[in-house]
Amino acid sequence: MPHGSLAQAAPWPTRAVRIMVAYPPGGVSDAIARAIAEKLALQLGVPVLVDNRAGAGGSVAIDALAKSPADGYTLCFSAITPLTLLPHLGPVNYDPVRDIAPVASVMSTPVLLVATPALDVRTFAAMLAAAREKPGRVRWATSGQGTTGHMVLEQVRKATGTDITHIPYKGGGQQLNDALGGQFEVLSTNVGAVQLGYIDSGRFKPLAVGAPARLAVLPDVPTLAELGVPQANLVSLFGLFAPSGTPAAVVRRLNTEVNRVLALPEMRERMQSVNNLPSGGSAAGFARVIAEDSERSRRALLEDEGTQRPGGR
Fold it and tell me: What is the per-residue pLDDT for 5?
């Protein structure tokens, strides 16, 4: 690409860098992205601006990134699902391999499954019983079509044979407000201070977590693997991306700086305080993880004839 060749010959950075965040303001992912942008600005010596581009499970931001100049000045913070899951659910306006360059893995996030005030149950089994009693009446909200939460739902539906209605949102902020108002019965969300506060107050009832093991902050809440649906026991992986064609030297510099940010004790503490696990590593290693996850998603969806295809938002 011409943009990439020009940037390769020029010093970088000489002006502000923009990070598009694939989620609305106010959520855990947005807060972490802003914290990373603040640290990167100090390390790069230029402003690092945050631009929220929420919608369509993260594909709005990824599509905008794919159409941006490959000069290192436009990046995206997103879960990997717009690259590994959404393209297998239906057409997207970008090629996840040709158009997007993985820069750095940032963090993995457990998935928390809760019952809202609209559903008076306290266990995952009771939620399934309610769904079987009234097929389609239990509504499960996620942060969007093709997100990890959506995949968790699809795997639960497939494994248990239950008819549960998917309610996709554009991100985490509005769905929390609607959950508190009982606009749906079940919510899959991140594990953050706000969510834990609602659990402590009794407004949400925790049903399960998608995580390698029970969370220290919720020791009585079983993983989905413990509950007999290991295929639904998923976590969200987030990272930083650039347009394909971004000069290799710029990608290497960004990867180095992101890894430096993730190694800072205050950043690790901040992530772990909201039950996110810092990841890091090379850009090539991140690309391999994405390719492997995409293949797993493709196989899972091929096996699942009941997976719903994207429709209206």
Answer: 46
Which one, of 203, 242, 202, 284, lies nearest residue 69 by Cα? 242
Tell how far CA 201 is from the center of its chain.
26
| Residue ranges, the chain, pLDDT below 70 | 1-9, 171-172, 303-313
Q: The domain containing residue 226 runs over which residues?
A: 110-234
Q: With beta carbons less than 8 A apart as the criterion, state whether 40 and 258 touch.
A: yes
**Do 115 and 227 fall within a single domain?**
yes
CA distance 228 to 116: 22
Number of structural domains the chain divides into: 2
How far is CA 161 from its chain centroid? Answer: 26
Please, are residues 222 and 124 in contact by the beta-carbon 8 Å criterion?
Answer: yes
Contact 133, 274 (CB under 8 A): no
pLDDT at position 170 is: 75
Q: Are residues 288 and 149 in the same domain?
A: no
pLDDT at 26: 81
117's tokens: 């005030």
Query: Are residue 46 and residue 97 in the same domain, yes or no?
Result: yes
pTM above 0.90, yes or no: no
308 DSSP assignment: P
Residue 289 CA to chain centroid, in angstroms? 15
